[in-house]
Design a protein that fits this description.
CATH topology: Rossmann fold
Order of helices and strands: EHEEEHEEHEHEHHEH
Low-confidence stretches: none
Bound molecules: adenosine-5'-diphosphate, guanosine-5'-monophosphate
Number of helices: 7
Helix content: 40-55%
Strand order of the largest sheet: 2-7-1-8-9
Radius of gyration: 16 Å
CATH architecture: 3-Layer(aba) Sandwich
Number of domains: 1
Largest sheet: 5 strands, parallel
Number of strands: 9
């Protein structure tokens, strides 16, 4: 019988495949995972909805939420674009007896693990190479060429954070990566 209220942190350079992996892991209902919806000040992408992918805040509302202490952690992940994990979101999921899975940037992942300690498993998903990451971002076609270069440049810096995570999974073959993450999560929530 799995424990409830555990926190799974998934971090990776943008374009590595975090969202893809998280969606597949959530589909395994035996893990009883619910996605922690972050707040962000960025504009919604096509197909994204408020309260599904993110809580879309104006920059003013985001700053007010920071001042009011509503975030477990927050980061200016890209210049002028803020992202943060709301305390109310973690409470909403854990108080209903579910486990939490969250998609946060690499610095956020390290911070949340530090705050949550043994209640959290932090997983760093690594791209096979920076060039593969660039190709995935181009193929995803959700970012401008400038944004893609910004994300790739940041990825090189972010890769150095991998040793600060509990576990690392390489996302080369997607099926293998999903199975690797699924096993880590299953073992952790059964502890
Ligand atoms: P992230 O959430 O880390 O930014 P996504 O999950 O959006 O990344 O994945 C980025 C792109 O790469 C998407 O178009 C996705 O379909 C694709 N992708 C994810 N994993 C793989 C993989 N193992 N091989 C090839 N393409 C992948
Ligand atoms: P995107 O704009 O592609 O949705 O996300 C950009 C980055 O922001 C990703 O690396 C994602 O993991 C990160 N991110 C999303 N939510 C949060 C959060 O609540 N906190 C932090 N620190 N990063 C987040």
């Amino acid at each position: 019988m799995a424990n409830k209220g555990k926190i799974i942190i998934i971090s990776a350079p943008s374009g590595t495949g975090k969202s893809t992996i998280i969606n597949r892991i959530i589909a395994d209902t035996s893990l009883d995972l619910q996605f922690s919806i972050s707040a962000t000040s960025r504009e919604p992408r096509k197909g994204e909805a408020h309260g599904v992918n993110y809580y879309f805040f104006t920059e003013d509302d985001f700053r007010k939420a920071v001042a009011d202490g509503r975030f477990v952690e927050w980061e200016e992940v890209y210049p002028g674009r803020f992202y943060g994990t709301l305390r109310s979101e973690i409470d909403r999921i854990t108080s209903a007896g579910h486990n939490v899975i969250m998609d946060v940037d690499v610095k956020g992942g390290v911070n949340i693990k530090r705050i949550m300690g043994a209640d959290a498993l932090s997983v760093f998903v690594q791209p096979p190479s920076v060039e593969t990451l660039r190709q995935r971002l181009v193929a995803r076609a959700t970012d401008t060429p400038e944004q893609i270069e910004q994300r790739v440049a940041k990825a090189e810096y972010e890769m150095a954070f991998a040793p600060q995570f509990d576990r690392t999974v390489v996302n080369d073959d997607l099926h293998t990566a999903v199975e690797d993450v699924r096993k880590l999560v299953k073992d952790f929530i059964s502890e």
